[in-house]
Amino acid sequence: MPLQAPAFLPPPPTFRALPAAAPRPLRARPAGWCLALALGALAAGTATAQTQTQTQTQTQTRAAPAAAAASAAQPTASPAVQRSLQAVRSAPAVQQVLDDLRTDHARAVEELRHLVQIPAPPFKEQRRAEYVVKRFKELGLADAAIDQEGNAVGIRKGAGNGPRLVVSAHLDTVFPEGTNLAVREEGGKLYAPGISDDTRGVTVLLSWLKALNERKLATVGDIVFVANVGEEELGNLRGMKALFRTHADIDGMVGLEPGEGDGILNQGTGSHRYEVAFKGPGGHSFAAFGQVPSAIHAMGRAIAHIGDVQVPADPRTTFTVGKVGGGTSVNTIAGDATMAVDIRSNALPALLQAEKDIMAAIQRGVEEENRRWNAAAKITAEPKMIGDRPAGATAADQPIVQAAVASVLASGGKPTLRAASTDANVPMGLGIPAIILGSGGKNGGFHALGEWFDPTDAWKGAQTGLVTVLALVGVQGTSEPVLARRPPRR
User: Which residues, other chains included, contact 26 with Cβ-Cβ below 8 Å and sequence gap of 6+?
Assistant: First the structure.
């Protein structure tokens, strides 16, 4: 479902006293509710108990996979797209390229071992970007370079008058500097932080480029190879935002993330993240008691009210207070406190409504703490946006999704449509067709030191993805592009 361009909201103003909102019936709450209750009870002088059964239900609701938003029925491709896909897949020149992916697999795995040991923590991806640009040039993209944001970019020109398609994988991992990145092999699996997410995707880009250029396969449209920065954590999709801000002629995007190849991500879960600073006068816990409000108590009240916010099950919408801090000592009425709030939804209107309700809950907590002590000095809360990922979707009947579905079916797989927050959120939010495909191979332990990748037959996923790409841009003398050209954005 195409959505409007995302709203990049300014930080809300400092909160002042407002009338308390009327309470509403509750739905299943996020896992952070237990912390909210503890802080809220401290602030309000009340105690609340939750049963173990309720807590388990809340946790299960919170942990439901993103795939829950996917279509229940197996997606299908139109006959026209299937014919185009089959023409590409059966072309002798394409068959040679696909076979090269299979025979090159062992070398690609060795490159993966090397690349994963080049650190790429958030905002420090430079060394890995330099390696990728060097490889782009070695493989035939003479004009490859690192752009102003830090993305490694190289363009493989088509024969002309075709669409321009971005194929991408992100350079960054979640692991900080100093993490041991040594690769350990055990039971046929390779263990290393970031090896699947998304180092494997970057090596697949290099394998695609190597196979295409060694076989001199001519495409109708351009393929823009991008190893981008800023996908993880507070990177805030900065790499993709910069790419689409500076390239108005992109017609579509195919990104790579961990997965065997059957999953097709066509829905981008949007998110807004805030750091909220509560500030007040502070004071001695005994001498100033009753004379000043507490920043921590105000935060506790706010968290309790956040826990009461209702969000829809469809579109899937979630929230959590993921981090709290503040205070000076055990015998101090806190003059400062901070919390980090994560709000997500598969649809922009629901995301904005949840954000509005959570901001009102914070206001209410501040108001209640100030009213409780009725002191001259007041608590204020200042939200600062630290993350903005637009929500969006590429409809299942769009050619880019249809081509991916047809490719999975042709390979004997069972395609499924999924939702998550990825680099594809940016083009989706702009109304540009985009999907995320699996880079091939079994994997697990994402964002943990025990992250792993099983390379057994992983080349099959790489083949399925490349067939999708070739169908979209067209193969010279074999097929016309499935992806349409778009008017340049202004």
Answer: 308, 310
Q: How many domains does the chain have?
A: 2
The DSSP output letter for 446 is T
Bridge partners for 382 per DSSP: 277
Q: What angle do CA 105, 423, 490 make, to 5 degrees?
A: 125
- Between 262 and 20, name the one with better pLDDT: 262
Domain match, 156 and 168 both:
yes
Amino acid identity, position 408: V
3-state secondary structure of 156: strand
Residue 78: inside a domain: no
Q: Which residues of 139-174 are buried (b: 16+ CB within 10 A; e: fewer)?
A: bebeebebbebbbbbbbbebeeebbbbbbbbbbbbb
Q: What is the pLDDT of residues 444-490, one digit of tens each?
A: 999 999 999 999 999 999 999 999 999 999 999 999 999 999 988 87
Question: In this structure, are strands 222-228 and 164-170 parallel, antiparallel, or unpaired?
Answer: parallel
Tokens standing for residue 466: 């490349």
Residue length of the chain: 490
350 within 8 A of 315, measured Cβ to Cβ: yes
Q: Return the CATH number at 309.
A: 3.30.70.360
Give yes or no: residues 281 and 424 share one domain: no
Q: How far apart are CA 293 and CA 426, in angstroms?
A: 42
Residue 81 exposed, middle or buried by CB count within 10 Å (0-12, 13-18, 19+): buried
Q: Can the peptide bond before residue 198 be classed as cis, meaning omega within 30 degrees of 0?
A: yes
Structure tokens at 81: 């797209």
Sign of CA dihedral 195, 196, 201, 204: positive
Is the omega angle on the peptide bond into residue 315 within 30 degrees of 0, that is, cis? yes
